[in-house]
Amino acid sequence: MAQNQKPAAQKPEDPTVPKKSSKKLVIGAAVSAVLLIAAGGGWYFTKGNDGAPQVEEVKVAPPKPPIFIVLEPFTVNLQRESSDQYLQLGLTLKIFDLEYEKKIKDNLPEIRSKILQLLTTKTASELLSAEGKTRLVKEILTLGNAIIGVVDIPAPAPAPAAIVPAISAVAEAGAEAQPAATPETAAVPPKPVAKPAEKKGIVDVLFTSFIIQ
């Protein structure tokens, strides 16, 4: 009879040999993934955009909503022409800052008095024209802003006509003296243009009623 074959005895594990941990494999894979992502990001910022300069987006604050201050109607006698005439006028002042709303209300009696004095110097024929109404708006703006402490800075006077050609010649000579633009210098983005200064004080005068009788 054939004898039953006994299975070969398994060799006992050596306790001195450390077992391979699956955790080390997971950690190694995670480190490799991080390195690949970092390398890809560096390639994008250096080569991924064909070397074009990255222009930083400038966030512009939204414009302030206007504030309207309604004045009580004015009734004044106009300068006499062929007959006596008077003006009934409704005004609304436009501003953008609460600070000036308080100043206008604090100085409202003086503002109304100055507007009344101004209106009494006008004639009916002057105010009936579009030019006369535009002039009246500018005059009310000037006196109202002067009362609340807002003074317009006059614009610089233009250069005389004789000096302009000389300035142009100097500018052209300077442009010719500048070295030709290289790819490195051409890639530099231009500096952002500063936005115009915000208007202060009373920015507009609106007519809500305009009756001459």
What does the secondary structure layout of this molecule look like, with pairings?
Elements: H1 22-48, E1 67-70, E2 74-77, E3 86-95, H2 98-106, H3 108-119, H4 124-128, H5 130-147, H6 163-177, H7 183-186, E4 204-212
Helix pairs in contact: 3-5
Describe this structure in words.
With 213 residues, the protein is α+β, with helices and mostly antiparallel strands. The protein has a domain at 67-151 and 198-212: Tetrahydropterin Synthase, Chain A. Helix content is 42%, strand content 13%. The protein contains 7 helices and 4 strands; from the N terminus they run αβββααααααβ. Strands 1, 2, 3 and 4 form a 4-stranded antiparallel sheet that branches. β2 (74-77) and β3 (86-95) form a beta hairpin.
Describe the structure in brief.
The chain has helices at 22-48, 98-106, 108-119, 124-128, 130-147, 163-177, 183-186; strands at 67-70, 74-77, 86-95, 204-212. The protein is of the alpha+beta class and 213 residues long. It has a domain at 67-151 and 198-212: Tetrahydropterin Synthase, Chain A (2-Layer Sandwich).
Q: Report the sheet with the most strands, covering strand number, pairing sense and barrel closure.
A: 4 strands, antiparallel
Secondary structure category? alpha+beta
Unreliable segments of 5+ consecutive residues: none
Helicity level, as a percent range? 40-55%
CATH C-level class of the domain at 67-151 and 198-212 is Alpha Beta
User: What is the CATH architecture descriptor of the domain at 67-151 and 198-212?
Assistant: 2-Layer Sandwich
Number of helices: 7
Please provide the ordered H/E string of secondary-structure elements.
Answer: HEEEHHHHHHE
What characteristic shape results from the CA principal axes?
elongated
Query: Would you tell me which CATH topology of the domain at 67-151 and 198-212 applies?
Result: Tetrahydropterin Synthase, Chain A
| Rg computed from alpha carbons, rounded to a whole number of angstroms | 40 Å
Mean pLDDT: 74
Percentage of residues in DSSP E strands: 5-15%
Quote the distance from N terminus to C terminus: 142 Å
Number of strands: 4
